[in-house]
Amino acid sequence: MDDRVREHAETLVGWSARIEPGDAVVVDVAAGAHRLAVAVAERLGEVGANMTVTYGSDEVTRAYLRAHDDDFETATGELALFEHADAYLRLGGGRNTAATADVDAGTRQAYRGARTELREARMDTDWVSTVHPTRSLAQGAGMSYEAYRDFVYDAVLRDWETLAAKMSRVKELLDSGDEVRLVTQRNDQPSTDVTMSIDGRTAVNSAASVAYDSHNLPSGEVFTAPYATAGQVFFDVPMTIDGRRVRNVRLIFEDGEVVDFDAETGADAIEAVLDTDAGARRLGELGLGMNRRIDRFTDNILFDEKMGDTAHLALGRAYDANLPDGESGNESAVHVDLITDLSEASRIEIDGETVQRNGTFRFEEGFEL
Amino acid sequence: MDDRVREHAETLVGWSARIEPGDAVVVDVAAGAHRLAVAVAERLGEVGANMTVTYGSDEVTRAYLRAHDDDFETATGELALFEHADAYLRLGGGRNTAATADVDAGTRQAYRGARTELREARMDTDWVSTVHPTRSLAQGAGMSYEAYRDFVYDAVLRDWETLAAKMSRVKELLDSGDEVRLVTQRNDQPSTDVTMSIDGRTAVNSAASVAYDSHNLPSGEVFTAPYATAGQVFFDVPMTIDGRRVRNVRLIFEDGEVVDFDAETGADAIEAVLDTDAGARRLGELGLGMNRRIDRFTDNILFDEKMGDTAHLALGRAYDANLPDGESGNESAVHVDLITDLSEASRIEIDGETVQRNGTFRFEEGFEL
Fold this sequence. Notes:
Two copies of one chain form a homodimer. By secondary structure, chain A is an alpha+beta fold.
């Protein structure tokens, strides 16, 4: 076995999920993630955790959803499984990123709705989502399999404590501010100029560990839960949402809600997201990517949103970690990230003060006011 | 998709497990059974069942078991999953039948012990075990992949109602009898001469459906739960037990218990089984194979024990379906079948009367008293 598969498993189980002896761990394995599952099982055995393994196959889900009449019920047994779990480790990495592209949007929405409680129970655990590098993901990234593996392990196997220390400075900036403004102004595309309130919200230093309220491996972003959004945002990073290509999306916000939108490609996918529920028209997240080992877009949100010199906004559900204790933020069955490149002709202001220009933070070398 | 994969799924969901709308179904998918899982998911969607999919990978289990210190705990979340389930569909078909061959017998035993409640909860559902034909199973059978698939689907896709009607005559014979005697006498191998009490026990007409208390697809056997076994049995059909080859096993019974044994190959595997617990030295099952579409041994108990003109005895756990209501039969963490070929120089007596000779029952053409 590639030593990096073992290191990936060790990072996931140890640094990310902080699994301890006796923990009940549910591991969800995508159809192409078998090798990582074996390494994770080995590590869970060493730690003395309790392991239950589920199969997260897009093709199985597609077959089920297409055949079903959309009158889904909550799977109470699966709910009980998650309610007993201390941790949930999602090992992504399928064999076809478009495997569910022909599942009807209404069906997806009905299924998501029936699984709300399950999702909440999973999110109450020390959950972590990661991916095993597969040929399918390499293809999606436009990369060779070998190069893609290097890319994934570069992003995953890093000194997370050092990155966490750096990201803590961005968290401080966000925690002490009341309003964020994002501006991009390039000749070749629509501009972004949007303001969001973050007053009373707490930023997460997302250092790929539940100890940091961070649930992705790799991570490397600082995010918070904005509200009262107003203005226009142009997302120039191509994405795949529910198996459909989306490109050059523009959202117009008033009073915290999307009031208009367009997209060069995939407008129907955006519309389906926005129509999910009331919360899908409001933002759940503003994130600033800081993992500079992620040096290219690979059409995978787990990586793309962490890329250095980018910002992303998510339509839908907010994370509790950003909110005062007991307060609930934006609620929705969806959480869909959209990304904008900040590497040129951009700035981020907090309370009127420029804290990042063209991707470089003010505490970094090369920052120009 | 091979139409037979779909027919297999339809037989499993419809005839075997009798899944109804709203049923909570746990599907366990072996690493090589993906295509069958897709077909089963489609069928479950059509029926409107609730589906949870677990991953039954031998390689994942091996990695976990080898790394663990053997101090296993019951997985309470997984237990809850099974307790909520109406049905459990096990889709076997791995990629290496010897995948767990290097897992220590003591470790297996400890793990089995910690999963007793889970196993019982699963067996309280309408569970069905089947396999998807994989190259690994074809290899284990000494067959080409193409020929093996034909073999599997011939055994699985048959007119179960017609076979059930025929098997009901054997059930009648066993139900009305008090003692069974099995005799084989061939020059080239040790003989079998064993008697078992079946007084008060009810035979199962195992027609591959939970409606018949039958939980295997394919099935095609009539079985009961014997006791007070005395005599010698020689099992001439080669087997693989816990990943180890076993051949030509001889068991000596006194007062219902194995008091001596030997084996040409795999004596250590038999010894490990016998040492599991007190119940592992007693019989849990006497079965008579009646699926003549299974016309060869393929080193897979699911098929081998159903082969026409064979009988099998299982060390360990008895099935409740064979016992009077509320009475518990032999209890054990194991249920290990051993098979003897009855196609020549054999007879089965019930209460002193010959009911089968050389594999032919007395109600069949060609029977000679």
